[in-house]
Input
Amino acid sequence: MFTTYQEALEWIHARLRLGIKPGLKRMEWMMEKLGNPEKELKTVHIGGTNGKGSTVTFLRSILQAGGYTIGTFTSPYIEQFNERISVNGIPISDEDIIRLTNVIRPLADEMEETEFGGPTEFEVVTAMSFYYFSKLHPVDIVLFEVGLGGRFDSTNIISPLLSIITNIGLDHTNILGNSYEDIAFEKAGIIKRDTPIITAAKQPGALKVIKEQALKMNAPLFRINQEFTISSHKSLARGESFTVNINGDQTMDQLEIAMIGQHQTENAALAVIAGQYLNQISAVSIDNQDIRVGLKHAFWPGRFEVISENPLVIIDGAHNDEGVTALVHELSSRFKGRMIHIVFAALKDKKLDKMIGSLDEIAEQITFVSFDYPRAASANDLFELSQSSNKSVGDEWETTITQELTDLPNDHLLVITGSLYFISRVKPLLFKYFQNKIN
Output
């Protein structure tokens, strides 16, 4: 029995040693032992390469504005582990983490002795979320973010009200495949029979795969630039404004979001379509005002997040080609002519050369660091991939960032980016730095 939060957390994190084990058999085994709590939930399933967390946040905020209690399951966390299981954006308590690990630990130990082997960290946390939302803290709807891929992801044992696929990019190619079509096939594995699928995928090969799977499963398909479109986009000082057109005859004008980046308008549009569908099938009762208010209030940490205005410091979890492309686009358009300093850390199993090449193009100077995580790339390896004429290696990321903040000229901009696991370490350091500066 665990008696402290730290003991419970250490046990959960220790399961990272088991790595990634695609497949649903272990989840199905645990759920059967628990009485299938996942079958008691009303859910929405969100997959894709980038934008899953933002889409979850937009939809949660819309449904909250309508007065509903919404559970979310997301990964990774930015500020604290408990964020991964939240209700109306409020992370689960330490006490409930202890309760849940004491429920799941005996099952994990028992499973170790079976042909399946022990559950991974992600499987354990997924099982905890199912039990939490069905037994300890019932909610109106739970939004489940896919961890990896879709077809064999631990979350893919649910029967959702609808599914969402944000976009398709070349990420996790060592596991999901080397082509857009291969990756789309894995992502499209969350499409369920007769269950609507909403997608922002635009790459032709990926979209073809999603369409074929939707037809096979008789799932109504809603595609960006086809069944719904985005127009009249305008960047605001702290956010975006845009219009969503649905089926050519329904329009929601001048919607506003506080999250920065043109790509966020696509994630927000997915949430708008999802909210309207849930309203249409009477799963919820929301109106256009709920949608407007929800979008405007939605916030997701670590995504082009402005930590400080003076000096200007931005953190962004751009951890793959698509994420870096979006980041570079926003930096180039919003801060044209401004000197940009970049601190970058990444995971070694990513396709890093193109990402670093894109950052090289906009960086006045770029510093590469590593951090304490099993899959983290070394700073020297990142340095070797860079073609920048003003590049360096930081021996300790904490010292490097603190020094960058101290030396940053007033008219320059510091961007800290890369792995979301890295960003989760950076944010508390930045808060502490600026708090001490105020005091």
In short: Residues 5-297 form a domain with the UDP-N-acetylmuramoyl-L-alanine:D-glutamate ligase fold (CATH 3.40.1190.10). Residues 100 and 128 are 6 Å apart (CA to CA).
